[in-house]
């Protein structure tokens, strides 16, 4: 039946359909994955940041004894565009950064702290929740 319709009759519907599909799926409408991190994972990440003593170098909001000044403050980390000024900020990159920072930014002063990928995932969830 569609083949029997003239081209001019189908084109407006096709354009309207594409506009609705693209208009309804704009990137700003899709929440970033870290917004969906369970509260328990975010809380565990906060505790792990204290356990790994990240606060000896960084000031981190709501993390016990995290008042370091050697590294940058991690306040509002979820709003940052880049990690260490080079790597796009997001859950996957941040997890990799926490586990092996030198693999993403060779020569970085951020040391590898022996963090497991699972712990890094929770720590990233907390840091990305800081706005």
Automatic annotation (TrEMBL):
Iron listed as a keyword: yes
Keyword Manganese set for record: no
Top-level taxon of origin: Bacteria
One Pfam family recorded for the sequence: Cytochrom_C
Domain Cytochrome c: 40-131
GO MF annotations in UniProt: electron transfer activity; heme binding; metal ion binding
Keywords tagged on the record: Heme, Iron, Metal-binding
Entry-linked PROSITE patterns: CYTC
Protein name in UniProt: C-type cytochrome
């Amino acid at each position: 039946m569609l083949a029997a319709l003239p081209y001019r009759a189908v084109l407006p519907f096709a354009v309207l359909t594409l506009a609705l599909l693209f208009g309804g799926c704009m990137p700003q409408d899709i929440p970033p994955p870290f917004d969906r991190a369970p509260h328990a994972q975010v809380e565990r990440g906060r505790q792990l940041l204290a356990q790994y003593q990240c606060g000896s170098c960084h000031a981190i909001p709501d993390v016990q004894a995290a008042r370091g000044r050697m590294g940058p403050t991690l306040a509002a980390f979820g709003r940052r565009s880049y990690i260490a000024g080079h790597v796009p900020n997001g859950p996957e990159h941040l997890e990799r950064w926490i586990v092996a920072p030198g693999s993403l930014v060779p020569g970085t002063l951020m040391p590898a702290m022996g963090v497991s990928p699972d712990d890094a995932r929770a720590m990233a969830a907390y840091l990305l929740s800081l706005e």
